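Lab notebook, bench 4. We co-purified these components, and the gel suggests they stay together. Before we commit to crystallization screens, I want a quick structural picture of the whole thing.
Request: model the full complex, all chains together.
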Amino acid sequence: MPSFVARVERPDRGGEWIAYLEARERAASAGSRGSGSTARRPSAARPSVRLLHVDGDEDALLAALLFEAVGRRGGGAHPPGALGADERGALLADLVGARANRRHRPGRGFEALRYRFEIVSDYGAFRDLQRHRMLTVQWQRLTPAPRRRRPEEVDAAGCGDDYRRALDVSRAEWERLPRRAASARRLRALPGLPHPLRARPQRARGDAADRAALRARGPPGYRAVAHEMHRLIGEVHPAVAAAMTHVDATPSRAWSASSARCAPSSGWKRSPRGHRGADAQVRHRRLPVSNARNHAPRMGCDGAMSVSALLFPGQGSHAEGMEEPFREHPLLERGLELLGYDPFDRLAEGTRFQQPALFLCSVAAWATWRESGEGADARPVAAAGHSLGEYAALVAAEALAFDDAVVLVDERAAAMAHAAELQPGGMVALLGGDAIAVRALALRLGLTVANDNAPGQVVLSGPLEAVAAADEAAREETGARARRWTWAGRSTRP
Amino acid sequence: MEPAAERLATALARTPVAAPRLPVYANGSAAPFTDVRRELAENLLRPVRWRETLLAMRAAGVERFVELGPGAVLTALVKRTLAAA
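Here is the predicted assembly.
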């Protein structure tokens, strides 16, 4: 590709900016020495949350929430008379309304309140807080200082030694870094230092109580932090905490290797999964580190590289929570940035969001598989993806750049959701039965064979009435079990 | 799905595509992609020939299939297809 714009080399570019940052850093470290404060080592394995400072009170919040409704100059500057605690709570509850999730926002009046927290947590919890934009963040230098206590899950998975070794390597590398290069931001970019980083006390500022929307999902560290923030807000502003009705206050689930969610969700997860017994065992052994499952007609002798094909799933393989193992993977993060929305929050809305979500997870699973060395004995010679999975396969084969593929998948999802709206249709999976009779049935009803998935697993698609007719006639005419669903998002073939 | 395929073709036309580093089998042909842009758009309108894809890869010498991504749908299809082969 010809380049039309050449970058002019200017050695001083950025120099002023760096000098400014350095001056600020010097002043800050001199200041911190003068005040006698030293960085505290995080002492506990559990996250800690302290509420350092609160701005505003509940009366000011009520006044601010009423500001827009008052409609005269100075309106809302004063609280609406003297209210008792109960009245205040009731009025606030009315103004906030029934929030079902963090996107139901009660308005900018909440900016009348500000909270400043100091949070010490593991890196996973921290990244979630950051990614969900619950807080604006000031952070202290990150170090690979080891946890006092190794997470039980690591030992349970038999990786305790590897974990300790990885920390040792990280620490040794970190100590080799020049002081300035070890700033948090740079450190994050080092591939050798992924997870076990420990966030030193971070000060986080809650811009508004509204933002402290606590999410039900996520690893226990994150939930514990969110719950503690909610509790602390409740101590100073009980009505505000009570108005956060969308908070799921149930305690954190244990987050172990076996609890990575792969619950059958909907659509065709339930149906064309013919023989459950054989593959169920494989499925339950899933580790969140890598979703890779190997199915071998193994021919090579042990230890030899096996000639492998990489397979990437299509729509229908998605499940709520599927992104959890890949939350901090750079590819997933990059994908979310490019999309500009979080498809994992909107899986229930159909194909429009299921497609980008599944694509991101598949590519992250592939990258994790390679990076972890799990696929070290596999020699990939081919790749294929089922429907949407083709895009992940082409990324793996470097035919498509990841960034381009994200944009394509987003466009594909939008185009297909739109087409399904214009021309509603349905699909029916036929399981078992006589293959020739199945094709004859499709022909008679004007249905198309959308997927020829496996022997005895064919999916037909077409107009709703024809799909309904096939559903009814299947058993008698073909001996197959039928399972039907509409396209309104769920599936996508013609 | 025709309007969707057209829209996708438009998007594909402005997407850079490189030669795959390993053969990627296309759903519509059960054979390696030869023209990625054209086939990706067409595949929206064509059946997914997954069973034949697996058989073709097996015939090309693949000994092991690795499913990368959520769920285990494809693993089940591999077992079913190759058990019957």
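Residues 2-13 of chain B form the longest helix (12 residues). Worth comparing against the SEC data before the next meeting. The first strand of chain B starts at residue 24 and ends at 25.
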